[in-house]
Structure formats: structure tokens, C-alpha cells
Amino acid sequence: MANHFSTPLELPLSEETLAAINAHFSQLSPQDILAWALAHLPALYQTTAFGLTGLVALDMLSKSGRPIPKLIFLDTLYHFAETYELVQQVRERYVVDIKVYKPEGCKTIGDFENKHGEELWEKDEDTYDFAVKVEPAQRAYQELGVRSVITGRRRSQGGDRASLQPLEVDETGLLKLNPLFAWSFAQVDAYIRENNVPRNQLLDQGYRSVGDWHSTQPSREGDTGERAGRWADKGEKTECGLHRNFFEMMLRAKLEEQRIPAQEVTTTSEVATPPA
According to the 3-state scheme, what is the secondary structure of 200-219? Predict the structure, then answer.
């Protein structure tokens, strides 16, 4: 039972403790998992790109009767205007502290392209993922003292998430809580509608999942995956890098940086413009 676990949890977790926690979670609702997390997980934040599952978790937290954990939003600089509008709606609706982290040394797309060149996502998507998601996330965790995060991942999203556990420990020792791990898209969608939770307006325009504007498109006829339209022409790609091995991605990014001297990085335009 929950009383068998220390409050807060003592880290690092043993494999036996992690297995016991996950066995306990298998019997709980997402609301009960979140309530347990608020009591037991140290230095808890919520990482979110304001997708539907993350929004459901946030709404549940707002009704828990306890302070809402601070949010961490990784601003890649390439989000749709509708996503930035949703961030403001969430801030006003839930009165929550949102910590925004951008690529290192960059405030604008122009800054990013002066540093990395144009369309880095086309030339080297792993380096792009590291620059806009992985490095900013690790910087946030270090600066804020984060030990645990709430994510919006679910098994029914498929890919690497199909075998998701409710609580995971990554290679850096970070605890990742996936409170809606067992929910289907239908359950998430029903909760959003029944509770009038703010959502990205692009979801009403044929998009199933929303990421950066350059790698997200409306789902096409015959698409069945919940994340259809994300990285549509990228074969087996299913993750942005945030939930891949940090040390492997960091090493690859450093090797790539050494291979291409900074003076070879060029750009022909100051600002990239999202599609209308």
C-alpha cells in the first residue's frame, strides 16, 4: 500500500521499490496517482507541450486541493501561433507558474538560425531535437532542482510508448510519472470535453497531434495513429528526443558540433515564417 513508501521518496529508487510502486499504481485512477505523487515525489514539476493528455493531468491537479506543481514549457521557437495562444489561456485559467525554456543562447528564430543554420531539422534531426528539447530540458532540471516530472505519455500512443510504465526512472535518475499511462484517446477526449479544458484550436482543423509547425501537418485519409501528422515523412520517428537516452544524444550533439566548425554555419534569412 501507499503507506509502505517514504514521504517523500528516498532516491535513488531500488528496482524492487519501483516495481512495488508501479504495481500499486496499476490499481489506481489517474487522479489517485497524481494525489500520491503530490505527497511522495520529490521536487515535482510538470513538463508539457500542452497536448491533450498533459492538459487533462493539469486539470486534475487543479482539482486536487493542493498547490499545482510548476510547469516547464520547452519553447522550441517553432511552435504554431495557436500553441502560444493556448499557453496564455492555460496560464489565465489555472493561475499556474509556467517556466519557459528556449534553446541555449536563443530568443528568436533568427538567433537559432544564426547559431545552427537554417532548417536544422532537415539536415540533422537528432541535433535539432537536442538543441530545442533535450538541452533546454536538462538546463531547466538543473536550474530548478527538478527530481520528478509529470508527463503526458500514454501506451495507446504507440511506438516507444506502447510498453510504458506509470513511473519510470531515466538514465539521469529523473523520475518520470505517466499518470494517464493506461488511458485511451477516447477517455482523454471525453475528459477534455466534459470538463471544458482548454485545447489547441488546430485540433479542430484536422490535426491530431501538434508539435513544431515545420514537422506537423493535418492527418491524412487512412491515418490511424493518435500522433498522425507528426514527423509524417520521417519513417519510424515517434519521439522528439525528450524521452530518449540523454547521454547518447549529448554525445552525438558534441560530435556533430566538432565536425561542423561554427564558422561554416550560415543562414540566408533572419526569420522563418510559419505557414498561414
Answer: CHHHHCCCCCCCEHHHECCC
Reading the block at residue 130, the C-alpha cell is 537536442
Question: Distance between CA atoms of 52 and 198, rounded to whole angstroms?
Answer: 9
CB 71 within 8 A of CB 100: no
Q: What global pTM score does this model have? A: 0.83
Q: How far apart are CA 254 and CA 218, in angstroms?
A: 34
Helices (H), 6-51: 15-25, 30-40
What 8-state DSSP symbol labels residue 148? E
> How many CB atoms are located within 10 Å of the residue 158 CB?
13
Torsion region of 170: left, alpha or beta (phi above 0 gives left; psi -120 to 50 gives alpha): beta
The catalytic site residues sit at 240
Provide φ and ψ at 240, rounded to 5°: -85, -5
Q: Which residue reads 534531426 in cell numbers? A: 125
Cell 543562447: give the residue: 105
| Lowest mean pLDDT across 48-52, 98-102, 150-154, 213-217 | 213-217
CA separation, residue 28 to residues 54, 118, 169, 199 (Å): 18, 47, 20, 26
Tens digits of per-residue pLDDT, 165-182? 999 999 999 999 999 999
Which backbone phi and psi does 218 adopt, to 5 degrees? Answer: -60, 150
Please report which confidence band the pLDDT of residue 264 belongs to, taking 50, 70 and 90 as the band edges: very low
